[in-house]
Amino acid sequence: MSKRTNAESYDGSQIQVLEGLEPVRKRPGMYIGSTGYDGIHHLIKEIADNSIDEAIAGFASRVDVRILADGGLMVTDDGRGIPVDKHPKTGLSTLETVLTVLHAGGKFGGGGYKVSSGLHGVGSSVVNALSSRLAAEVVRNGQLYRIEFERGRTTLPLKKLGKADRPDGTRVVFYPDETIFKETTEFDYKWVVNYLKHQAYLTKGVYATVYDERTKQRQAFYFEGGIRSYVKSLNVGKEVLSEDIFYVEKQVEDSMVEVAVQYNDTYVETIRPFANNVLTPDGGTHLVGFRSALTRVINDYARKNNLLKEKESNLSGDDIREGLTAVILVKLPDPQFEGQTKNKLGNPEVRRYVDQVMSEYFSYYLEENPAVAKKIVSKALLAARARKAARAARDNVIRKGAFEGLNLPSKLTDCSSRNRKECELFIVEGNSAAGSAKEGRDSKIQAILSLRGKVLNTERARLDKMFANAEIVSLIKAMGVGIGDQFDINGLRYDKIVFMTDADVDGAHISTLLMTFFFRYMSEVIEAGHVYLAKPPLFGLIKGTGSNRKIEYVYDEVALEKTLAKRIEERKAAGTKIDESAERFKQAGFTAQQRFKGLGEMDAAQLWETTMNPANRTLVRVNIEDAEKADAIFTKLMGQGVELRKNFIQTNASKVNLDDLDF
Length: 663
Known about the structure:
Layout: H1 22-26, H2 29-32, H3 37-56, E1 62-67, E2 73-77, H4 94-100, H5 123-129, E3 131-140, E4 143-150, E5 153-163, E6 169-176, H6 189-202, E7 207-212, E8 217-221, H7 227-234, E9 246-252, E10 255-263, E11 270-275, E12 278-279, H8 285-304, H9 317-320, E13 324-331, H10 348-368, H11 370-399, E14 412-413, E15 424-429, H12 431-440, E16 446-451, H13 463-466, H14 470-479, E17 496-500, H15 505-521, H16 523-527, E18 531-534, E19 539-543, E20 550-554, H17 557-573, H18 584-587, E21 592-595, H19 604-612, E22 619-621, H20 627-638, H21 642-652
Parallel strand pairs: 1-7, 11-13, 15-16, 15-17, 17-18
Antiparallel strand pairs: 1-2, 2-6, 3-4, 3-6, 4-5, 7-8, 9-10, 10-13, 11-12, 14-16, 18-22, 19-20, 19-21
Helix pairs in contact: 3-5, 3-6, 8-10, 8-11, 12-19
């Protein structure tokens, strides 16, 4: 292969230099992650975070977000107002500098903020670059100033408008650029509500509101208790060991450590770690410091008070955290996050800070609340015994060969391909439906796992009980990923795991039981995008007979009525005389209507055509968009709280679409 040597084909003229905000418009994904739904809402966060930072710093008491009817969004705070004086380096006003220069802001050690959620200082300018229009108004010392932009370029220079009719602060209105956000430019009210609610929890004493001009919906949040209120909300629907919530707020050197803890009777831990109001889902040094201190303090207390026998080994961290709900919030002047997404905190000193505060103050709490301390230790001891029982049950299952890769479950009809990327596992309830699925499937890439009846409700079961359940063992075995401390997603045998259940209430219940298991014990499989719900039809509308017989499939009652109404109107428009006394399907021109009470009522060809054929089927991917909300839903639907579930059913009984339910 010859080497190209023509130097004249590559010179300085081919090096592109992007100035100002051009790089942002050229590669928006580098700055906001995507130009889809997530990206458009990231713009809100970039602007609103600035207002929250004013509240964290103690200069603002409220943040108001308004979704405008014309497609824009307005964020207003009552903070100090972005400075409007001339910036010494850019020669522009400071307000224009903040909105047009990348890495310009008060978060780089210049004294503007001691702590902030912003890290890279690109927020406001990036929003400006990606907006078709943006206007900023600042009130300082009672005087109102305004500046306007289009796609990052100044169209109305900073102008003093005179005396203001509102308190000092900043207001930003922006309109996402439809040439950048081609998928959608519409803001989601629920997303804004969720974001502001969490910011209000994390910034105690701030009043946050959202108003949607499109629907006239309005919500406001104010939590004097801060993260204590947050922990209380996370435990709604769960039986807590004590109504009292452990809380500490302590300054260590130049940082602040704030922790709230409460235990419940469930088998899972719920920990929300934050750094400067930014959720760090992958944890980091603050979480490590918290966990190590918690484990050490509880073991020390148990030893000191003879709750752990001399010959007994220490309780493990996993045992101690069973049923734990905690929020950890650290505020520090120079947070070191891993990557632009800020998923993990890296500051090494923070581990020491959190460990120090938890070790001292949680020890005091246990000493001063012996009844609560005994309940916590007793729960951890029970978890330790259950863990040993689970290990014994798992070892027993392994001895029988149930988890060995070469010994797949008898209820699994596997596919022939060993290319995981093309393989699909259909989890089917009942022998009849499984029989049709096996006959109708593409045997090269589609495997069928038949389950008998409704699987175990794993919301109320530990691993030891699960290993005694044949259906759960079959499921674990077919998946290939193991469970508990042996879980490894790299062992997954199928790219798609499809819950294929009847299109009725029983089918929805079975799907919910399966989702509960996956969410609690195999959440990584969901997060990686491998779990789906099949959408089998509920009705078949038949026209003609014999060789001329055709079936049109409809998937729910709402779609059925729309289909029939449309066909009736078409027939009327064509001059066909309609017998209003006849059944609706006959008025629409169909000869018969079939309701599929279950998958087993379809023959193999029908099941393939409607539900399994990749060319025709509809699959709904299961996502964990909000783990906190998902946790609350599963607690409500599958947990111990009967009254909570009863209220939910009574409230939502008339709603047919799960997306409409008020969880």
